[in-house]
């Protein structure tokens, strides 16, 4: 059984899989009866189930569409290359580009093909625009257990579930040691919309004023921050915005993963080691616009901006 060559399943075989699943047969038993490898059964159910249910007619339709797309896949040409290059220069990833055009109803190659074309040189001078992945950053200093602050464990369930607008995560992106200028970043947990402002330093007064300025016209239900001293004016922030601010556990950046990830996106344009005093407000506005108008996989290939302001 393990040495069987992979073959496409027929409609009859898919119907047999459906009936056997309903009867409660194990996947191993189904593979034996259908006459294929057990990995084929796992792959078939995984790829062609709808809402956790395997229906043979739907599975056959999906398989047919994939096969048709494979036969008619696009080859490299000037039009496709221009479509890709135009979006890459806006710092979109190949996966974002592919799904953007597919949502427009346009037949398009897969993102792995885009990477292959870059690797073999068909798409040149684009590496500078591709996202660079580095080691996860963990801040180990400038922390304190926030006196009088509310714990993230008391945050409303609505904020945890990301089902509504207005639950924001706070952080700062800062310059190297010896330089004071920083950026206050605020991200909505549901839509991933980024708001940001340059500040001359990370004192609590300055940061709290920036937070108010960024959010005073937004729907604000909760805020979540780390234990950085820049957020020690949390009572003032709560009064100004008529909201509640919750603090993550020390050294648990994953509890604010939305903001941490978005800061990583911003670092593509402002790498670590950059003196943020050299970044203008126009520069920052441009970078946040690029981030907020990218199609995002986590948003089903919509943009953060369209998700946030269409609700």
Automatic annotation (TrEMBL):
InterPro entries: Integrase_cat-core, IS30-like_HTH, RNaseH-like_sf, RNaseH_sf, Transposase-Integrase, Transposase_IS30-like, Transposase_IS30_CS. It comes from the Bacteria. Keywords: DNA recombination, DNA-binding, Transposition. Residues 152-311 form the Integrase catalytic domain. The keyword DNA-binding applies. Belongs to the transposase IS30 family. Required for the transposition of the insertion element. This is IS30 family transposase. It comes from Pseudolactococcus paracarnosus.
């Amino acid at each position: 059984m393990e040495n069987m060559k992979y073959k496409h399943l027929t409609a009859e075989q898919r119907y047999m899989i459906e009936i056997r699943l309903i009867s409660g047969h194990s996947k191993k038993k189904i593979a034996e009866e259908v006459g294929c490898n057990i990995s084929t059964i796992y792959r078939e159910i995984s790829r062609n189930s709808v809402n956790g249910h395997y229906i043979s007619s739907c599975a056959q339709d999906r398989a047919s569409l994939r096969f048709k797309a494979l036969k008619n896949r696009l080859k490299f040409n000037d039009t496709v290359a221009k479509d890709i290059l135009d979006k890459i220069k806006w710092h979109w990833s190949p996966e974002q580009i592919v799904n953007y055009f597919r949502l427009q109803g346009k037949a398009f190659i897969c993102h792995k093909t885009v990477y292959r074309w870059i690797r073999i040189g068909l798409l040149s001078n684009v590496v500078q625009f591709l996202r660079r992945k580095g080691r996860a950053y963990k801040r180990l200093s400038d922390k304190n257990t926030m006196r009088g602050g509310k714990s993230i464990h008391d945050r409303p369930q609505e904020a945890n579930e990301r089902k509504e607008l207005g639950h924001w995560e706070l952080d700062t992106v800062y310059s190297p040691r010896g330089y004071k200028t920083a950026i206050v970043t605020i991200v909505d947990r549901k839509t991933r919309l980024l708001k940001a402002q340059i500040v001359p330093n990370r004192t609590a007064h300055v940061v709290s004023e920036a937070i108010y300025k960024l959010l005073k016209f937004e729907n604000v239900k909760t805020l979540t921050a780390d234990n950085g001293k820049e957020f020690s004016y949390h009572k003032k922030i709560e009064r100004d915005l008529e909201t509640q601010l919750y603090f993550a556990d020390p050294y648990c950046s994953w509890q604010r993963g939305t903001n941490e990830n978005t800061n990583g996106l911003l670092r593509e344009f402002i790498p670590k080691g950059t003196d943020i005093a050299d970044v203008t407000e126009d520069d920052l506005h441009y970078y946040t616009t690029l981030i907020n108008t990218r199609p995002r996989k986590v948003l089903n290939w919509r943009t953060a901006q369209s998700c946030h302001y269409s609700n």
